[in-house]
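Sequence in, structure out.
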Amino acid sequence: MVFPEYRPRRMRQNEAFRSLVRETRLASSQLIYPLFVQPGKGKRDQISSMPGVFRLTVDQLAQEAGECRELGVGGVILFGLPEKKDPMGSGAHNRDGIIQRAIKELKNKSPELLVSTDVCLCEYTDHGHCGVILEGEVDNDTTIEILARTALSHAQAGADMVAPSDMMDGRVAEIRQALDENNFSNIPIMSYAVKYASAFYGPFRDAADCAPQHGDRRGYQMDPANCREALREATLDVDEGADILMVKPALAYLDIISRLRDEFDLPIAAYQVSGEYAMIKAAAEKGWLDEEKVMQESLLSIRRAGADIILTYFAKDMARLLKG
């Protein structure tokens, strides 16, 4: 079909036609909202590099849960700031730890809300790395044992899903075994299967107080230059028992999301990370971008690339827009 017989603009001439043939759609139920939980009571501290995002104490979570439920947001994912840190990240699996208490509070106040948890040690170690340091290096096999204990403690507290983000080899299998052996075979694993050593994490590291005290994370997170390696990483996690595969970050890695969507039939998640959020917010504050339109366009692009689920700090804002 060629012009003038075929005129693509016919289907763009008004919103009724555009909506009728729209290929990609967003729904609030596809969004997961990250929450940062801090010690104390009655505190709601805005994160300076992430306008509109707060560190909350456990008693403040009910309000957030209520908003998410009313807006139809698909769920939340919890990140914790412990009272104390140590070299082993032992606070991560403390039965009375910050995340364990947060899970119980949320499930008590909003039992129908889907509560996922980030499973990593970086927020709990005094050195800021995602695992235990032995002889100057992050020790993979020691770390995955602690990650499995952490995931199990989250399940015991009432979490609906666990999400390991550490990028240690074999951690999905270790977590799956720990859950299954303790009668939590129904708990799914949303694996950060393809997590790049990205510069887009800066605001998050401020929010969660988890920047490495020495070195960097390139020894375990993926090289941004690599694509084929992403397929190998995802394949390993599928074989180990992952239920959802995640790509992080999202916008700079839309090609990776697309490759995983073509290669695997599991649900694909993508994390629109703190730096992506902060850039849009900062440009909007300067008047250089229309925040609402860029938010919507960026989330649509992640969906168009193939993501079924999007973790985003815009979850509530986008849900309000969709609700009209």
